[in-house]
Amino acid sequence: MVYLKSIDAFGFKSFAEHTNVQFDEGVTAIVGPNGSGKSNITDAIKWVLGEQSAKSLRGAKMEDIIFSGAEHRKAQNYAEVKLKLDNSAGKLQVEADELTVTRRLYRSGESEYYLNNDRARLKDILDLFLDSGLGKEAFSIISQGRVDEILNAKPIDRRQILEESAGVLKYKKRKATSVQKLDQTEDNLSRVEDILYDLEGRVEPLREEAAIAKEYKHLSKEMEKSDVLVTVYDIEQYNNNIHELDEKLNYLKSQQSTKDGEKVQHTQSLNKFKAERQQLDERIEALNYQLVKATEEVEKYTGQLNVLEERKKNQSKTNARFEEEQESLLNQTATLKQEKAEAQTEIDRLKSQQKELNEKIQHFESQLYVTDDQHDEKLEEIKNKYYQLMSEQSDVNNDIRFLEHTIQENESKQSRLDSRLLEAFEQLKQIQHDINEAEKNSTMAQKELKKAEQQLNEYEHKLTELKQQRSEYEEKLHQAYRFNEKLKSRIDSAATQQEEYSYFFNGVKHILKAKNNQLTGIRGAVAEVIQVPSDLTKAIETALGASLQHVIVDSEKEGRQAIQYLKQHGLGRATFLPLNVIQPRQIASDILTTAQEAEGFINIASQAIQVEADYQNVVQNLLGNTIVVDELKNANELARKIRYRTRIVTLDGDIVNPGGSMTGGGDRKSKSILAQKDELAKMRAQLADYQKQTVQFEKQFQEIKENADSTSENYFATSQIYNSAKQKVHDYELELDRLRKNEAHLKGEHEEFEFEKNDGYQSATSKQTLNDKKQKLVEIKTQLQKLEEDIDLYTKLSKEGKESTTQIQQQLHQKQSDLAVVKERLSAQKQTHTRITKQLSTVASQQEKLDDQIKLFNSDEMTGEKAFETIQSNIEQSKNAKAQLAQDIEEVKSRRLELNDKIEETDQMLQEANQDILSIENRYQDIKSEQSRLDVLINYAINHLNDTYHMTYERASELYELDEDIEVLRKKVKLTKMSIEELGHVNLNAIEQFEEVNARYTFLDEQRADLRAAKATLEQLIEEMDQEVKDRFKETFHAVQGHFAEVFKSLFGGGQAELRLTDDDYLSAGVDIIVQPPGKKLQHLSLLSGGERALSAIALLFAILKVRSAPFVILDEVEAALDEANVIRYAQYLKALSDQTQFIVITHRKGTMEFSDRLYGVTMQESGVSKLVSVNLNTIDEVIKEEQV
Question: pLDDT tens digits for 42-52?
């Protein structure tokens, strides 16, 4: 027996915390007030068994079962319920004595299932409990309101309760699977038959194509030798032409080498002449420098002559001034000598007086220990300062006398030099102006030179870039020429095949060739009149298949004529589409709507291609019911939605046929008509694009060439500007150097005059010093007057304060005071003596300098005739040297002009050599271009050998020997090609395709037989399962019917009850319930009272349990409508059945509680949170007795 052992809930509805409920065999009652959460236990069991309806769990959505929080509790993030079942009897299909089923739900909506802690699916849970009495349709969990739901249900819905008890649900499920497989088998059979129908029309055409392919291979093998020999011969001729061109190139290289030698020779000569010109420029520069020096010498001696004349003119005045200065110095010397003798006499006298006073002071000090006080010290201090100021006053008076004499001399000297300085300043000003103008011109010339140099660099860089670009575009042009030739060849070949209808069946090809001659009314093949986008080529080609080669004619008459033409000439077969009778096909509107809304939908095939209006019906007929989607998966989904009623093709060429069959696989090795047509269009568009690019390359190459020529001309013109600017800069630098040297000479003369003017004391400085000395003398006199007053004051105070001092003390102080005065005067006289000595030395120096100037000024060299002769001789020599230098400069310049002519001549020859080299290079490039063209032809021939015969040129040269005339071989190749072309379209894979199609046809025929056998087997299996369901349901129905009458009488205390089928078919009949309570007429359930209805439903439940017991039954307040007497009968019957079935009842009735084995109380002490209290009623008496003892 399987029974429920326990349930663990966490976060489920009102069970916020982990709650464990233990169940025993027998009856377990769960009691509690309304709203306490009793029914949540029922909901938890239903939920863990796989319930998916939130409404059945009394919620709006499934997340409502998660604990949503209370006043003092937070909401949980998930709900979990764990159901533990005893499976020791092994009735559940699990190899375990105990089974644990767990379900967990998160707020995010994710749900998890576990079987014995292993992850499981919902399907696994449902399959496990199917037909176990705990399934979704079982009568094992009766929630509140479920009684009325059962009684009010339709008969067909009520039947499901009995089917669960009969254990036939698994058979119904298997039947549904078998029916689905039967549908699939029928669809597969339909697809196979469709494919076989299509293959039957392909076998014969492929047989003919295979024969043509064999003939083609035979002719191709015959043509291979001739074509290879011709190709090898052509390659050899091309190589010989290339060798001849190589010889021309070598000749051009020798010419270029000669021209390069001439260019080098001219370049060396040009460099030599330029170097010689540079030397001449340096020589001119040196001569110009010497000329400037000679000019300076002339100007110098001329200036000396002018100065000498000026000196001679002013000689008497100057000598008078010198005599005045000399007399002044003599007087000053005599005065200073006299002052020095007087100072020495005074010094000797003061020394003698000092000695005498020292002896007297020693005598007085020996008689008196202390003779000083504060007044004496202060008086002594003032007197010392007084004597010091007297000495300083004497020095200042001497300085003032000396400065007045010096200022007078300087002023007379300055007046003589002012005129000379003014003349030198004017000359220096003019020179500086000339220098500024020359610098400005030199700066402008340097800017021009720098600009020209920059332009030369830019032109050189640009010429380098242009040369590189020219090389790049030459390479691009050669590649473009090669690729265009190769692409043209491929296009010509493909166009020829298209014009000869090479890709069409033999019959179709001959019809198309004769359409404008022997036959009339022929419009063309379907492949010729439609325009298909490139991305849909494979899809449309697959959808049309052989219909691509159907021939469109005006009417049936033209079709008959064409068929007769084929029969008469034995040219094969063809299919014709008369425009006057062909009818379009349309997709049903509901299919079109569904397709347009489906994922991956692209278009209706007939609407995806372009065609003239005359052929619209033809396209609609062939493709009107074909849908194009992107991939096979979406095609399957769409086919399922439209119930496999039309054909669907994908971009990859896979097909989902009506009925559900699929066709697909790898691409063919040979290209189809549409693919060839699309490739030819692409190649032509590509060729046009490449030709445009080639023209653009040629145009750009020509532009680069013209740009290079223009740049070369600009470079030559700029180089001339550069040389001219460089010469200007050089000339301006020479001029600046000459002017700066003149400026330096004038500055030297100006400084010499300035020094001579400012020789000795500076006038302004001496005047300032004189003023300072006079101011100092006034200050000293003021201080002396103040000190005299202080001496008188302190002398008076000393007399008044020392009336009691002895006569010795007065005499001692007097002598000390006299000694101090003598010391001060002695020091002042020594300073005066030293100062006078220095002044005598200075005056003597000035006297000696003045004597030298007088001697020099009056010498014969300065003012005599000899001086005039010497200067005039120097002037004449300098002028001769200057004339000689000017003549040398003219000679050098003449030589430079000759060199310039040679340079221009050599440069012209160099330019001509460059032009010759350029011409040679152009011819060289032309030959290289011709070689490139020959290379293209060689490559094309080699590629032809490789692509057509899969052999290299070396292998082809060794394979065959030329034993015939080459023209005969060429003719033979053409004739063989014509024979091959007469074969028409050749499918080289026809033999393989025929074998493949034939083998496939045989395989599919066998598969059709297998599918028919499988269909018969499935139909027999379904019939057997229907019989099994019928037998089991019949047996269970009659068993439940008998028990229902018995249980009804027991619960009601009498009366009658009956189950009836709505018809005689046990597979589909519904179940009606007819009851007659005691004392009442037989009536329908809807006429019963609430209690009678509840008790009738309970009677049906007990009757089902008697037939097939469930592992456990949950009853949620099913007896709520019963009176006490009926409750007791219900509880007693429940107790009697508990030996076979575990009951869990939720109740408020005491009678039910009394017959329970375990009692659980549910409370809600905390708002929104349920708690459990458990009592085992089987052991309660023993517990009470133990407590009483």
Answer: 788 888 877 77
